[in-house]
Amino acid sequence: MTLQEILNSINTLSTEERDYLFEFLRKKKEESRGDNFWEGLQKFRKVIQSEGIIFTEQDFADLHK
Q1: Which residues of the chain have pLDDT under 50?
Q2: From CA 63, how far away is CA 15, in angstroms rounded?
Q3: Which of 20, 21, 46, 58 has its CA 20 to 30 A from that of 27?
Q4: Is residue 4 left, alpha or beta, with left meaning phi > 0 and alpha meaning psi from -120 to 50?
Q5: Contact of 21 with 10, CB cutoff 8 Å
């Protein structure tokens, strides 16, 4: 099915069905963001560990203001 066919089929849905579809897609997008964030955090932690980088309270001192 092409993108255009999908878009055309969306137009045939009832308002309730479209609302459900859009809510479903919104949730999927949010879940994906969470996954991407977690993967990015894990990569960051691996680099920090492999490089032997250590953060101290002093590194974050100016963030508390």
Answers
A1: none
A2: 47
A3: 46
A4: alpha
A5: yes
What is d(CA 24, CA 31) in angstroms, rounded to the nearest whole number? 11
Tokens representing residue 60 in the block: 């974050």
Half-sphere exposure of 55 (CA within 13 A, CB side): 7
The per-residue pLDDT for 37 is: 84
**Cα 2 from Cα 8, distance rounded (Å):** 10
Token pair listed for 13: 């849905």
Question: For residues 57 and 64, what is the distance between their CA atoms, to the nearest angstrom?
Answer: 10
